Amino acid sequence: TGVQTCALPICFPVTIRIRRTHGNNVFLDVTIGVNGRMSVRESHHLTERVEQDLMGFENIYHVYVHVEPLV
Asked: Sheet holding 60-69: strands in order across?
């Protein structure tokens, strides 16, 4: 149970939690599920894309992205 498969590079579950705040700045922890066949290089590029997308929001100061294989 709980095992998921996907053809896309990113799948659910995705969890986002506030790691901490400092003034108006927010530090996020993000965990994304990825296809277990994805290479380390591919998953690293994906984490960079997620970081860039989230950094576009107001008050997001830093994003820590973790990957978990789903397959």
From this structure: 10-22, 25-34, 60-69
Please give the model's pTM, rounded to 2 decimal places.
0.72
- Cβ atoms of residues 15 and 30 within 8 Å: yes
Q: Which residues pair with 31 in a beta bridge?
A: 15, 66
Amino acid (1-letter code) at residue 62: H
Q: Along the 71 residues of the chain, how does pLDDT read in single tens digits?
A: 344 444 455 555 677 888 888 999 999 998 888 888 889 999 888 888 888 888 888 899 999 999 988 86
